[in-house]
Amino acid sequence: MGRYVIRRLLQMIPVFIGATFLIFVMVYALGDPVAALFGDRGPDPATAAALRAEFNLDKPLWQQYLLYMGKIFTGDFGTAFNGQPVTELMERAFPISLRLALVALTFEIVLGILLGVVTGLRRGRSLDTTVLLLTLVVIAVPTFVLGTTAQFFLGVEFGWIDPAVSPDARLDELIVPGLILALVSLAYVTRLTRTSVAENARADYIRTAVAKGLPRGRVTVRHLLRNSLIPVVTYLGADLGTLMAGAIVTERIFNIQGVGYQLYQGILRQNSPTVVGFVIVLVLIFLLANLLVDLLYAVLDPRIRYA
Amino acid sequence: MPGSPRLTGAVAGATAIVLAATACGGGDDTGGGSGGGMIRASWGDPQHPLEPANTNEVQGGKVLDMIFRGLKRYDPETGEAEDEMAETIETDDQQNFTITIEDGWTFSDGTPVTAASYVDAWNYGAHIDNAQVASYFFQFIDGYDEVHPTEEGEEATADTLSGLRVIDDLTFSVRLSEPFSLWPETLGYAAYAPLPRAFFDDHDAWLDKPIGNGPYRIDSYNRSQSMTLVKYEGFAGEDEAQNDGVELRVYTDNNTAYTDLQAGNLDLIDDVPASQLQHASEDLGDRYINQPAGIIQTVSFPLYDEGWEGERGAQLRRGLSMAIDREQITSRIFHDTRTPASDFTSPVLGDAGGYEEGLCGEVCTYDPERARQLIEDAGGLPGGRVTLTSNVDTGSHRQWMDAVCNSINNALDDTGACTVNPVPTFADFRNRVTGREMTGMFRTGWQMDYPLIQNFLQPLYYTDASSNDSGYSSEEFDELVDRANSESDEDAAVETFQDAERVLAQDLPAIPLWYQNGTAGHSERLSDVTLNPFSVPVFTDIKVS
After folding, report:
1. A155 touches B at CB < 8 Å
2. In chain B, what is the straight-line distance between the N-terminal and C-terminal CA atoms, in Å?
3. What totals of helices (H) and strands (E) does chain A contain, helices first?
4. How far is B375 from chain A (nearest CA, A)?
5. What distance in Å separates the CA atoms of residue A219 and residue B533, rounded to the nearest whole number?
6. Chain-chain contact of A50 with B207 (C-beta, under 8 angstroms)
7. Distance between CA B375 and CA B312 in Å, rounded?
8. Is the distance from CB of B512 to CB of B341 less than 8 angstroms?
9. DSSP letter string, B93-153
10. In 3D, which of B356, B418, B375, B455 has the Cα closest to residue B136?
């Protein structure tokens, strides 16, 4: 187990370097960001050159990358164009997005698995068909439509929530945005769980358990659910990273100043330190979440062993 | 397999867990925070750190306008430059100025505003090492070339502008490199604000919480989140705040700000999102403001491209201009938040300031017949077709570009005559423009720095001027501008500028499209909400009930 974890951690290094380099190249390929800092006015060549030098933009790409990576290991992620260190932006943005992602993940786990189990156990009944139809609708309608509609009705018409989340982004303010963010994944979790539960419900060991006269709840939770959860856990693990990075739309709608917002600003202003810095952290979260998922397999199914 | 009653229990239990988990962050309500007389207004994250000479966009400029007062201030209604801190600005030759400032002004940290506060601030703004994006504002002052060389890579040969000299605590003198009669009128621009000692002593601390001499002082500032400004009790000017303060909240999307205004959580938005324009007056009634701002949108041509050179090119441009149905586009696409342009300036200048409706004449009037004739006489478009280029990441550029091209295609009766060339980002677009890579029409917009006719002409069309994107060069135009600048009488200067503008209408390096309006909406708590000619709310005048 320990060796397995170490091997996995070592494997992260090339992935990490490759991912950051790709992002760097992509931001670089967007072109020179300095001209945009002057608005519609033609940039003054001397000031533009001074700004380029300040942000190392006058150097060749590989050199910029090396300089950047060199500084990262000392904890210096560079500065955004508004003069703020990128680490400061991260300090604010990541906790907010993490909180939002956790709210979303909670909805996915609790509601998704619950609906999945219920529909899986009642295959073909009207409840099953209704939930299936609903998941179809949720998957088909774009998030921004769902988000703005919910915001308008709950925020303006009924006045139950504030349409915009305050800078503190307290948990209670994040319930609706979290639900909106979770909806699509929630639909997938429901469907995954349903299929898995429906399949396992016919398995021999369930029939044996029922025949032994075990209480129905125990059969469902201990025998059925535990075995059905492996594909769902895989999906949820990968989803945490997606939730944090993919929150751009939801964060914009509800004015949440998290990762999505900073990434959006960074891309719009072509600020490579911001974009690359945030993506590096996202890559790390993604890798760690995947590792955690792999380790969870062993908990769910003791037959899975790591060398 | 039938469901069991236990399952229902599980549902209830799980729901309770979710509610408990999500509610624990609540409790104390920190969201409100607005005192009785505070205005809650929408804001965008400024592009640069907040420094007077490093701010060239509206969001940062909004704050500078609240925390600083310079030598002059533009009347929020007429746009006229009036003395604010300046007691007198004297000159005999339009080149050497002696400026005396009023006594009794203080920065919000209690230190007095002196002549040195101005001279030091201007020297800082001009110096190349400080890489301030608005440093060109000091280009008229003698010695600018030494502190700010124009060529890349050159070092400054002086630390301070030789044209600036402190005479005593309240007096300083300015020598310009050439005569510029309207120069004192430019001094209302934020880049010319005075700076306190604290700015130079501890620059980082100052940037965290800027200190100025305006009607408001910054109470708290969380970058990219919010800023609270409160009334500065020691303010020495006449336009003191009529409210307790302003809470600026950063919105990432102005649609959300609009929704928040509807829900009653926000008092003021100063940019109604394009998608809401058509029902804004219905939603807000007389709380919707739509009034002219000092912004003109134009389409420029690459005069460095041989297809657009000479008299033939000018005739093509005139033809294209007459093929654009400005009336229809401004009403259909912009819901009358734009006004068809008929000169190269803006209505906010007023007639005395040099705005002249219809100066551009028939060239700016829709006439498809005549348009087709002009283009045919000139031998047709270069290569038979023309492109219209702009970035499409912001605004509703895509929509109006399509409309302009359709209008041209209809006039020329050729569906392929004009095509849109969208560029993904603003930075990419500006790089192509300044790199002179254009082959057809491209979008150019101009937001005035100060309400002067000079500002709408010289930076844009003077030979090799900073924002002369089309590469236009006309001896006649340059000569008229020079003459206007050295004119000692203001009215005569404005008239000469208009003569220069007539040269433009003839050569047409750019086609005027429309003047842009500022839009705003406010809640029922506020009254006396107006926008100034820069489309920024006049915060000091707003009353809160």
Report:
1. yes
2. 64
3. 14, 0
4. 30
5. 73
6. no
7. 9
8. yes
9. SSSEEEEEE-TT-B-TTSPBP-HHHHHHHHHHHH-GGG--TTGGGGTTBTTHHHHS-SSTT
10. B455
Cβ atoms of residues A266 and A80 within 8 Å: yes
Note whether A157 contacts B: Cβ–Cβ < 8 A: no
Contact B131 A51 (CB under 8 A): yes
pLDDT reading at B119 higher than 60: yes
Nearest to B313 by CA among B374, B366, B367: B374
Look at A50 and B128 and tell me if their CB atoms are within 8 Å.
Answer: yes
Question: Which H or E run includes B42?
Answer: strand B38-43
Gyration radius from chain B CA atoms: 26
For residues B398 and B335, the answer to whether their CB atoms sit within 8 Å is no
A253 interfaces chain B, CB cutoff of 8 Å: yes
- At B521, is the secondary structure helix, strand, or coil? strand
What distance in Å separates the CA atoms of residue A94 and residue B345, rounded to the nearest whole number? 46
Alpha-helical runs (H) found in B420-470: 426-434, 453-461
φ/ψ of residue B8, rounded to 5: -60, -40
Instruction: Identify which of B4, B7, B393 has the shortest CB distance to residue A268.
Output: B393
The answer to whether the CB atoms of B225 and A167 lie below 8 A apart is yes
Query: Between the CA of residue A21 and those of A17, A76, A86, A279, what are the distances in Å?
Result: 6, 17, 18, 11
A67 vs A55: CA distance, rounded Å: 11
Which among A38, A156, A257 has CB closest to B263? A156
Q: Which of B253, B299, B447 to mutate to test the interface with A (most CBs of A within 10 A)?
A: B253
Is the Cβ–Cβ distance between B68 and B113 less than 8 Å?
Answer: no
What percent of chain A has pLDDT above 70?
99
Tally Cβ neighbours within 10 Å of residue A219.
22
Contacts of A211 (CB under 8 A, 6+ apart): none
pLDDT digits (tens, 9 = 90+) for B365-412: 999 999 999 999 998 999 889 999 999 877 678 999 999 999 999 999
Minimum distance, in Å, between the CA of residue A51 and any CA atom of chain B: 6
d(CA B272, CA B257): 9
Measure the CA–CA gap between A190 and A127, rounded to whole angstroms. 13
More confident residue, B421 or A36: B421
CB atoms within 10 A of CB A149: 12
Within an 8 Å CB–CB cutoff, is residue A7 touching chain B? no
Per-residue CA distances from A151 to A100, A157, A276 (Å): 16, 9, 32
Q: Which pLDDT band, with edges at 50, 70 and 90, does B321 fall under?
A: very high
The answer to whether A54 contacts chain B (CB < 8 Å) is yes
With 60 as the cut, is the pLDDT of residue B5 above it? no
The 10 Å Cβ neighbour count of residue B475 is: 9
- Residue of A91, A125, A255, A274 best to disrupt the B interface, most CBs of B under 10 A: A255
Structure tokens at B34: 């607005």
In this predicted structure, the answer to whether residue B79 has a pLDDT above a threshold of 90 is no
**What is the band of A202 on the pLDDT scale with cuts at 50, 70, 90?**
confident
DSSP bridge pairs for B295: B447, B516
With beta carbons less than 8 A apart as the criterion, state whether B71 and B195 touch: no
Whole-angstrom Cα distance, residue B334 to residue B341? 14
pTM of the predicted protein model? 0.84
